[in-house]
């Protein structure tokens, strides 16, 4: 593996897309064989397409589409056309390959960015680059999300039993990826109410200023023609996170007060 990895690096330095693609394909063949997974295909693009599936919009240098079993990786950023470093490119390739493994090898119904997922991607990356495996340190962020504490991770030289960690993370991810339970009448009622709320929220959403800002930002940085569909997708992706957080906070507060109220009624009736 490390020798194939080296070939990707050399091909990237030479700068020819087709060579990089060939080496990446060889890399993925070897990795798939190792994991006894079916073959997976790769497309290497010069720059990131602006139109990226919303679900994967956060990926900077690659994506994976489960339906076609195709990994795409790009050597340059979309807007500023900057060349990615080899380390970043390889790490994106490992990351997308791990999405592929989640679906094709482990049979998950979905491939989430869990801590286990990042652990698996890091193990693969360290192995193919011949760097010593690292213990990842985590810090909680908003909601129930975690991010890797890179300064701490890079400082730490301690090793641990990687296999046992991986086994645990598989078990966790497997449980988390189980399909949703049957729709009960209660769930249906909750969904109906939630839909009403979503409709009300979207009516009051002021999207125009955001859209204008994004059009301005894209227009400034690149001499590309703006396509409405692409701008629409960028705006949607930008809004998604903000709306999600806002709704989460509002929901927490609403549920808290509703539960408190119900408790009050309950205690006065006794
Ligand atoms: Zn991902």
Written account of the structure:
The chain has 270 residues and is mainly alpha-helical. The chain has two domains: 2-176; 185-269, no CATH class. The chain has nine helices and five strands. It has helices at 2-14, 17-34, 86-104, 115-129, 150-155, 162-176, 185-204, 208-221, 228-269, and strands at residues 41-47, 62-65, 70-76, 138-140, 146-148. The strands form two sheets. A three-stranded mixed beta sheet has the order 1-3-2. The protein has a two-stranded antiparallel sheet with strand order 4-5. A hairpin with a 4-residue loop joins strand 2 (62-65) and strand 3 (70-76). The chain binds zinc ion. Zinc ion (ZN) binds at residues 59, 95, 99, 113.
Overview in brief:
The protein has helices spanning 2-14, 17-34, 86-104, 115-129, 150-155, 162-176, 185-204, 208-221, 228-269, and strands at 41-47, 62-65, 70-76, 138-140, 146-148. It has 270 residues and is mainly alpha-helical.
């Amino acid at each position: 593996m490390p020798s194939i990895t080296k070939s990707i690096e050399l091909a990237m330095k030479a700068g020819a897309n087709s060579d990089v693609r060939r080496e990446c394909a060889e890399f993925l063949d070897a990795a798939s064989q190792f994991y006894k997974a079916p073959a997976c295909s790769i497309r290497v693009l010069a720059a990131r397409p602006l139109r990226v599936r919303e679900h994967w919009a956060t990926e900077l240098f690659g994506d994976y589409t489960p339906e076609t079993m195709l990994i795409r990786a790009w050597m340059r950023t979309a807007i500023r056309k900057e060349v990615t470093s080899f380390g970043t490119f390889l790490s994106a390739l490992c990351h997308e390959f791990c999405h592929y493994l989640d679906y094709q090898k482990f049979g998950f119904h979905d491939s989430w960015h869990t801590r286990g997922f990042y652990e698996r991607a890091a193990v693969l990356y360290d192995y193919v680059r011949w760097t010593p495996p690292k213990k990842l340190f985590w810090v909680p962020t908003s909601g129930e999300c975690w991010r890797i504490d890179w300064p701490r991770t890079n400082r730490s030289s301690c090793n641990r039993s990687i296999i046992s960690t991986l086994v645990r993370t598989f078990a966790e991810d497997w449980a988390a990826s189980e399909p949703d339970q049957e729709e009960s009448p209660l769930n249906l009622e909750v969904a109906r109410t939630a839909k009403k709320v979503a409709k009300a929220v979207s009516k009051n959403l002021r999207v125009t200023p955001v859209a204008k800002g994004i059009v301005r930002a894209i227009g400034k940085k690149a001499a590309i023609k703006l396509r409405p569909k692409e701008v629409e997708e960028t705006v949607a992706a930008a809004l998604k996170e903000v709306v999600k957080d806002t709704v989460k906070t509002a929901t927490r507060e609403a549920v808290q007060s509703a539960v408190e109220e119900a408790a009050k009624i309950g205690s006065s009736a006794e």
